Amino acid sequence: MHQHSPRRRQLLGGALSLPFAGGVLAAPAPLRAPLQVGGLPVTCNLTLPIACKARAVADGKPQAAATLFEYNKYSGWPEIKESLMTGRIQAAYMLAPLVMDLTDWRIPLKIVSLGHRSGAVIMVRTDSRYRRFADMKGKAIAIPSRFAVDYLFLRKMLAREGMSPQDIEVIEMAPPDMPAALYAGAVDGYCTGEPFGAAAQRAGYARPLSMTRDEWRNYICCVLTVREELIRTNRPLVQELVNYVQAAGNWLDASPVNRDKAAHIAAKRDFFGQDPKIIKFVMDNPSDRVTYGDLRMLRNEFDELMQLSVQAGTLKRPVRYEQYVDESFVKNVRPVKVML
Q1: 3-state secondary structure of 130
Q2: What does the DSSP 8-state code read for residue 94?
Q3: Domains 31-118+220-331 and 120-215 share a fold
Q4: 31-118+220-331: which CATH architecture?
Q5: Which of 50, 122, 158, 302 could form a disulfide with 191 if both were Cys (CB 3.0 to 4.6 A apart)?
Q6: What angle do CA 143, 162, 14 make, to 5 degrees?
Q7: Percentage of the chain lying above the pLDDT 70 cut
Q8: Domain segments of the chain as ranges
Q9: DSSP strand E in 153-278: where?
Q10: What is the mean pLDDT of the chain?
Q11: How far apart are CA 60 and CA 327, in angstroms?
Q12: Cβ-based neighbours of 84, under 8 Å, separated by 6 or more
């Protein structure tokens, strides 16, 4: 089946539908205190709630969810993209290829930190006969969007079997809908970030066919992205945010106890609003299902991601690394203590 099937839905939309008014981007909204940082309730974004909570504790407000910067929950990438583009928020966790595409359209954004490593899975039903990708020829597999690195992961796995996306039916679907779609038989598999793989696995009706921890160890997807005017007008605030995100990553990977605490913190309504047992399942099964301690920004890794995106048709042309990345904040990170 062809990848552009009528069953595809919930398209991300890409940068071609930019909300220009007379060719000029809307003026950004005034910066609120605390700084609103957009994110999804996914474990690839877990460093953000931990950073927000850790800063609140450091400020002597342990009951607060945030003080200097605050997690702002979104339901999907299109909403985050539009909010960041129009300046309603000035910072967010974003899909790396989407940031590349937006900067190619001259949207003033910069990636200033990674948010995680690994964390994507390709799930199939426990009772299915699928053991390798060749078994899934002609089957329907859901992805979050064509800009998601999950889609690039799926393409890599297909290529290893001598297959292409034309050999399956690719359906774009919101990740929270994927477990139910698999259970109902609406799709034969899905490729996404956690905890939406773990939710179905823990329920007993799905198993991983492939995981980035095994197949793509330097996988990156969600990246901390800020508008350039925030860098120009409040560089210390951006630096503090990066300091705490990087510290949150180190803290998360330091011990199982910290990961258990993180699951309970992120599960609260102020953050993900999810069952802490599902988040903890991601943290424990196995312990490197998602990792956070190595948040270095490496040019060669972004270049690989960019080339894969060009090959996939996500990007129309190569985008220069300096155009969408600002390494200076990671290079100037000041260690901070996470006391949670």
Answers
A1: coil
A2: E
A3: yes
A4: 3-Layer(aba) Sandwich (3.40)
A5: 122
A6: 30
A7: 91
A8: 31-118+220-331, 120-215
A9: 169-172, 189-193, 206-211, 222-227
A10: 89
A11: 30
A12: 38, 90, 91, 92, 94, 109, 225, 227
- Residue 21 DSSP label: B
Residue 146 has pLDDT above 60, yes or no: yes
Rounded to 5°, the CA angle 148-154-156 comes to 110
Within 13 Å and on the Cβ side, how many CA atoms surround 306?
21
Residue 50 has pLDDT above 90, yes or no: yes
Q: Angle at which helices 77-86 and 96-104 pack, to 10 degrees?
A: 40
Please say if the pLDDT value at position 31 is more than 70.
Answer: no
The CA distance from 165 to 1, in Å, is 9
Give the Cα separation of 73 and 54 in Å (integer).
18
117-118/169-172 β-pairing: unpaired
In the chain, what are the helix, strand and coil shares in percent, each to the nearest 5?
Answer: 45, 15, 40
Q: How deeply is 13 buried, as exposed, middle or buried, from its count of CB atoms within 10 A (0-12, 13-18, 19+)?
A: middle
- Nearest-angstrom CA–CA distance, 281 and 165: 30
174-202 residue pLDDT tens: 888 999 999 999 999 999 999 999 999 99
How many residues in total does the chain contain? 340
Report domain 120-215's class. alpha beta
- Is the pTM higher than 0.85? The answer reads yes
Dmax over CA atoms of the chain, in Å, equals: 57
Do residues 86 and 205 lie in contact, with contact meaning Cβ atoms separated by under 8 Å?
no
